Amino acid sequence: MTDKLLPILLLLGSNVFMTFAWYGHLKYKASPLWVVVLVSWGIAFFEYCLAVPANRIGSAVYSPAQLKTIQEVITLIVFAAFSVFYFGEKFSISYAVGFVLIAAGAYCVFRSPFG
Question: Phi/psi at 106 (nearest 5 deg)?
Fold first, then answer.
């Protein structure tokens, strides 16, 4: 069970770091762009420290397509929470519908109804 769960937990952590690296600076638009880039790179280092082992460990139990799908679904979940709690955005029904459609695509990767 750990072999299946550990990559997911590592990808969850890596996505938290990456979401802050990519979007956290939007609250600090007065900061010079070069500073934002350097800070984002620093944050992204920690993302890589989690994502690379997640994919290495996960490749023992998941295919590359499954690992990428897991990462994308986690990215959406993390970003949705980030948008609500960090930026104060409302989670709309259109977001929910879009995420359900993406989840349907993820289902096809893991349990392909097409053979």
Answer: -65, -40
pLDDT of residue 44: 95
106: CB partners within 8 A, 6+ apart:
69, 70, 72, 73
Close Cβ partners of 76 (under 8 Å, ≥ 6 residues apart): 99, 102
CB proximity list for 25: less than 8 A, separation 6 or greater: 31, 36, 39, 40
Q: Which of 82, 105, 80 is nearest to 93 (CA)?
A: 80
Other CB atoms within 10 A of residue 87 CB: 11
The whole-model pTM stands at 0.84
